[in-house]
Amino acid sequence: MRYPRTSALQVSDKCPQCGKRTLVEDANTGELSCSNCGFVVTEKSVDQGPEWRSFSDEKGEDRARAGAPTSITYRDMGLSTMIGSSNRDASGRSFNSPMRSTIDRLRKWDNRSPAFGSQEKNLSIALRELEKMADKLGVSQAVKERAAYIYRKALERGLLRGRSIIGISAAALYAAMRDTETPRTLKDIASVNNLDKKSVARDYRILLREMDLTMPVADAARNVNRIASRVGLSEKVARKAIEIVRITEEKEISAGKSPMGLAAASLYLAGVIEGEVKTQKEIAEAAGVTEVTVRNRYKGLRADLGQQLGLATEPQIVAQ
Q1: How far is 204 from 186, CA to CA, in rounded Å?
Q2: What sign does the CA torsion over 134, 139, 142, 146 have?
Q3: Is the pTM value of this prediction over 0.85?
Q4: 11 or 245, greater pLDDT
């Protein structure tokens, strides 16, 4: 007679046959038996611990119990299954010819059926484009998730009608970067897909207006390190430029000014202070702004903060 094992039955319980507390559990066979009389209380018990063998890796190195986590960056959230390419059954035997043709037909419809509707096809194309753009720009997974969420909401509200899938995808990615305060510009996003900067900006404004999105104010200090690395300035100059940006924010000088232009001018001013001067043309090209913007912002910073930074009143501009 076998006694079914329940959650109330523990290793420290008494043996139903002899009544002694000498129950021993064998982890290999899954049996719970008495070490005194040899009575098997349960067999083939379920191990509630972690899975220490792999069903996919022959070497058993992958000890994960579950697969990849769900993500809205996939059209099906990563929950769908697919028919594999192997023409063998669970026992390893090859299919005969009629069964092989049936499986091929099922495999073909399995690939076609998930994206049968227009919205599903649209979403599949858009999410692939988002993945490409995000990889080229080197952004984090959080930005990808946010961009996919914004695009899905735009698709639900019908904002894609009459508009480019790639354009709205780029606008959703830029909105995600602004929302997560990732330092990327419209020019960066437009360049990775050979899009017009004005068209991406137009689609971005449509998303803001139609979806009532509120974006945080861009932080100029986040752009300093990008510009400094492009022109070859040291970390000391970058830290000084960030300090200048923070001072402008405290004095409310940065209000109404372009974050990228302010970052470029602060970096140029920091280079003058630390003796690592780069030309305005080099910094303007690295920041994606004009030399006039860098020059005007530099003059303003020098006039407002020159005394605090210990500089002369008259600005000294490096010849181009």
Answers
A1: 10
A2: negative
A3: no
A4: 245
